[in-house]
Amino acid sequence: MTSSTHHVVLGNGIAGNHAASVIREREPDARITLVSAGALLFYNRYDLPNVFRGRQHWVDYLVHPPEYYESRNITLRRKTQVTELDTRTQTLSLAHRETLHYDKLLIATGGHAYIPERLLDYTKLMLGFHNFIVAMQVQKSVRKGGTVIMLGGDVMGIDLARTIIATGHRVILVLDPRTFWPHDVTPSDRVKYLQALTNMGVEVQDSGRVERIEMINGTGSGRRVFLENGGHIRGDVVMPFYGIVPTVDFLATSGIDMERGILVNPQLQTVRDNIWAAGDVCQIWSAEHNAYRFFYGYRNVKTMGEVAAHNMTGKQATFTSTVNEKLVVNRDGSLYSPFWEHD
Amino acid sequence: MAYHTDIQISICGSAGDGTIAVGDIFKRAMAHVGYRVIAFDQYPAEIRGFGKCIARTRVATSRVYSMKGYSDVLVSLNDMHAIPHVGEVRNYGALIYDSAPMSAVAEGAHISGHLKPGHIPYALPMREVSELATGANRSRNFVALGFVAGLYQLPQDAFHHAIAAKFESKAAAVTKSALAAFDSGFEAGAASYQFDDVRIDAPRGRKNAHEARMMTGNGAIVQGCLDAGIETFFGYPITPATGIMERLAVEMPRRGARLVQTEDEIAAISAAIGAGYAGSRAATATSGPGLSLMTEMMGLGVMAEVPVVIFVSQRGGPSTGLPTKTEQSDLNLAVWGGHGDAGRIVLAPTNVEGCRRCAGRAFELAEQFQVPVIVLVDLYLSNRYETVFLQDENEFLPKDWKQTATPRAGYRRYELTTDGVSPRCIPGEVGGIHTATGLEHDEYGNPSDSARTHTLMTEKRYEKLQAAIKHPGINFTKRFGDSGKVEVGLLTWGSTFGEALEAMLLAQKEGIRCAATKVVMLSPFPVRPVLRFYKDCQQILVPELNYTGQFAKLLSGEIVLPVTRISHTTGAPLDVSTLLEAIRKAARKHRRQHNTT
Lengths: 343, 597
What we know:
Chain A is α/β, with parallel strands linked by helices.
């Protein structure tokens, strides 16, 4: 590679940051630009539940200090939204009307919360937990000893529920077929895992799907969730945890093959030259499953970043998952997901 | 412990963006609610065009003396101009910029690509917000200002008040539009999560907070002139002194005084000398190029012993030089300029309050010692805003306090006296007939080329200057910092003193014994207090905004002792951190030599 190669990494998460770091190690003179839609440096989202434990300054969550990027000569472009990818001219269109040329592109834009269509009208009445600001909003919205109504209950939600309960609050979980997402759970295992949730202090609500959500007294604080069976539950906040969907809107006209995510081979390369994808945004061809599939969890995503970086810099590396994808019930009866593991 | 607010906000745009206007509103609003404010605007030399404008404002809960070397917040109204200043923002400071430019920008031309990892970005669609609020995108400067106010929870009312005051003379629609844009920006700012660590706490209560005024150095000079009862002013516009004449042109007629814009600087000084000769409190104002033209006539003022005040605001030179940048490179011209032994008084205030004081005292000195007095400032001080608490407006002596002598038989206008000051009378007074001339003259004013007369008269003209140094109304030098022996001393003049004082205060916090002395009177030179300071200092640093070390050379002509020159010729004020590093270096050197820690 020439020293003028411009590696552009879209996404400021685990895959993107690890990839940028590996590219820098392998190509000391290359130009590296890391593009992020957010305002902050890379921070550890796995630790965000700790806002309930009093860690309420975003700097406490930083994985790398600002000097990390300066010393590695990695240009960070934050608050930068990519609107379009033109693979012919190898340029990205940015929302602020600038174009950015790349020689090699890694798409690691991750995913965002999936909201079932029937609940889209209530989006403003729900709070996710996908970034620091929202995490703080949730923490401030829950009164001391207050109640969080969790819808769906994917493993990120369950992870958060552990901390919320441990800090003296109630969690009511409204079950859904996507509960325990992304784990594949058999009906018999599901019973076992629901018992584990109860053991952990989660109040499981299995009265059908959510019908509608209302603000209590129109005050802005407090929510009422109406269920299919006609009953309702009250809480301070309603949080949707139905899993995530890849963030790929800007690729609509790019010509890159996609199903739900970007389709890549085990080397994480897309059908286009010089474009790779890593992390929650991509579906990797699995010979074992004879299908493209997602691989989740911190370790998988970090490995993907590393594999993509190697391949962007001339090596031929292949992604292999090292994460056991099975949910576990601990000896104390609580639930454990390998997707909760992180550095 | 109460938090001490001390932040600096820079707004950078192109001429026509309204950068200076919103900077002005920001500083006035902050001063209005009781903060101490220093502000300095930089703008292009071109009257119209697309040059760079920067409005920098430092806001603090207690007194500060200079601009900071870095900014806590940078607002970009024009990325091309703001990008070179991104590095001025500290880690975890904020950058606020337009996320929806009007037209496509080339790769690398948007500011978001230039932020340092430690910066906190706030992308705001300024044009869009402005259009929604006002129907036009011209008010995006007010959107940005509102965003700042909303983000940092500043009192909205104070800004409304400042905006209304700013557009008092405009159509109501102008104010309405500005307020609408400001409020929209405020709402966006208030709704934004503040990730930066910029804190602006409520100002400390101060009994006389309501007496605080925002004033520039030029404004303070005008105030000093008015408080001293200026009667006539003659001037020719020149940056950065024009503001003096502009404001006097408004104020003087209201007080029955007269101001004339002359055809050039030579006419201005000539007329001012003529007015001074006629007994009027007279002044002119100019910059370096104008002072060059005035020097010949200033000699007449010296020779004919006519009181006149000349305000000089320095800019980058030589020639037309850098009309809108600051420099302290006219010291030589002010102190020595002209032919012959033409001693004059030169005062150099160091801050805005000092500008008023020196302006007022300059008239007293000119009249008491019958000599031209130059008040030497620079663009940085002329245009710098500070919150000031003015003294009694009657503190200056009325013009008739010792102006004239009662003419008597055998009246000698240039009588040789013990202090060199002769009895002066105003033309037209009975018995006061005398000759006033540029030629050397005897005690009656009659031309004389005798060797004895020239020797005696030259001595007389210098002796009265030595008497001037005893004037009780001005601290010709003033020392700050540690008393007694110190490791490092800073000897400064003019606007540079603020940076020196800030650097000294920081050095003291690091355990360095240091002091700073400002020299307000440059001519005649106050040798004794400066020498005392010298003797207390192991090392002397002389920072100034010129290449040749004009003040250091002035010093070396009076006191032959070594100094370390810190010369700076960027057209911008000295950076406090540069001075602090120089102090550290000097302290290390001293400690190595004396083997102390």
